[in-house]
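Dear support,

I submitted the protein below through the web form. The confirmation email said the job was done, but the results page showed an empty box. After a refresh the structure appeared. I'm attaching both so you can tell me whether what I see now is the final result or a partial one.
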Amino acid sequence: MKWISSKKTGIILFIFIVFFNTNSFSTEKNGHTMDLSIQKILEKADKARGNRDGISWEVSILSSENKKKSKMAFNVSARGFDTLAESIAPAKDKGNKILMVNGNMWFYKPGLNKAVPISQRQKLIGNAAYGDIAATNYAEDYEATPMPDDIVNQEVCHVFLLKAKTKNATYDHIHYWISRDSGLGIKSIYFTVSGKKLKSAEMKYDNFVEIDGKSQPFISKIIIRDILIKQNMTTLLFENAQIKDIPNHIFNRNLLKK
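What the results page shows now:
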């Protein structure tokens, strides 16, 4: 009888824990219930990929596609999720600029009367889209649904299905692996609108920035591979990440000519 009583107590306790865990992070916003635990997980991962009050970095993009190699490089300045990327290589592209503000993106090059709108989903080079060089805002741009946990490179990971809320997002939907230990996004699979696997990505965080006296990890490398043609690979190398004040005027598309 004691065993039965203990078993019942255990079942009741289990039900209580499950109920508590599924409701303790819920809140009401605009009439919709939000799981803040998922929101916070995504926000933390975003912070290691540009979501800061002011930050700059250099990104070099190395592409190997159909045995053809090419390279581009940009100086990037970001504040929150607004981003300005200025081309520094190759020489013929110097002066070209890519601006993203409130999820909208524009391209400017010397000789144009004004910046022209572009999509984050457009191809930049190799497997990289224009949106890949900007700060990520997965916490706001995508609706997240939890999937079963997984292990990647011996790290236990949260796995989320991210579905784009708008057409401005870089990808229609993503499977996203976030390390439970570090809170960093370490793997992605990107899908087309029709649901086909498009490409995969692995992320490294060997850069660090100083924030409030603490060293925080920041993205250092993204390796993007074509799902169908594995040898087609694009590597993004992030260097010289620095926390700094970013002036308002650089996000004004009417001033890109200056």
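Response: this is the final, complete result; the empty box was a page-load delay. Residues 42-255 form a domain with the outer membrane lipoprotein receptor (LolB), chain A fold (CATH 2.50.20.10).
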